[in-house]
């Protein structure tokens, strides 16, 4: 079983059509505002498999109070301000991880990591 104190946040964002590439680049540039916070474990940006204008951001935190501290911070406000022009709509769900089970690929040492976005001229 996973430690029940792990707190997961899942954002779903609809991005204005045609702005997806710029959104990805901006998200990558400002993502350190999250990962540099002492309570953040990791985060992911995923594009929806069925709608290229929908993105999911998943972040794991050591606990809910640590996430809420970040959520009220100036760093978070700056992060949101830079991403807001891309966002058409969005929702947030929060949860506590109850069980984590590694799959065979992870147990074998496989680590799938997408490439970093290419810098544009």
What topology does this entry show?
Blueprint: E1 7-15, H1 20-30, H2 32-35, E2 40-47, E3 54-61, H3 64-71, H4 74-83, E4 87-96, H5 104-107
Antiparallel strand pairs: 1-3, 1-4, 2-3
EC number: 1.14.-.-
Organism: Actinomadura yumaensis
Domain ABM: 7-80
Structural notes for this entry:
The chain has helices at residues 20-30, 32-35, 64-71, 74-83, 104-107; strands at residues 7-15, 40-47, 54-61, 87-96. By secondary structure, the protein is of the alpha+beta class. The chain has a single domain, classed as Alpha-Beta Plaits. It has a 4-stranded antiparallel sheet. It starts with 6 loop residues before the first strand and ends in a 14-residue tail after the last helix.
Question: What's the helix-strand series?
Answer: EHHEEHHEH
Which CATH architecture? 2-Layer Sandwich
Task: Give a count of the beta strands, DSSP E runs of length 2 or more.
Answer: 4
What is the alpha-carbon Rg in Å? 15 Å
Q: How many separate helices?
A: 5
Task: Please state how the strands of the largest beta sheet are arranged side by side.
Answer: 2-3-1-4
Q: What is the CATH level 1 assignment?
A: Alpha Beta
Helix percent reads 25-40%
Count of individual domains: 1
* Mean pLDDT across every amino acid position: 89
The name of the CATH topology is: Alpha-Beta Plaits
Strand coverage percent: 25-35%
Name the structural class: alpha+beta
Keywords: Monooxygenase, Oxidoreductase
Pfam families: ABM
InterPro entries: ABM_dom, Dimeric_a/b-barrel
Protein name: Antibiotic biosynthesis monooxygenase family protein
């Amino acid at each position: 079983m996973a430690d029940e104190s792990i707190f997961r946040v899942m954002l779903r964002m609809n991005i204005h059509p045609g702005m997806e590439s710029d959104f990805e680049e901006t998200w990558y540039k400002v993502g350190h505002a999250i990962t540099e916070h002492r309570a953040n474990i990791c985060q992911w940006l995923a594009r929806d498999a069925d709608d290229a204008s929908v993105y999911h951001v998943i972040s794991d935190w050591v606990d809910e109070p640590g996430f809420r501290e970040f959520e009220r911070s100036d760093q978070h406000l700056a992060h949101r301000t830079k991403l807001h022009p891309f966002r058409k709509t969005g929702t947030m769900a929060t949860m506590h991880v109850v069980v984590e089970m590694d799959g065979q690929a992870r147990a074998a040492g496989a680590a799938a990591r997408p490439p970093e976005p290419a810098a544009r001229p």
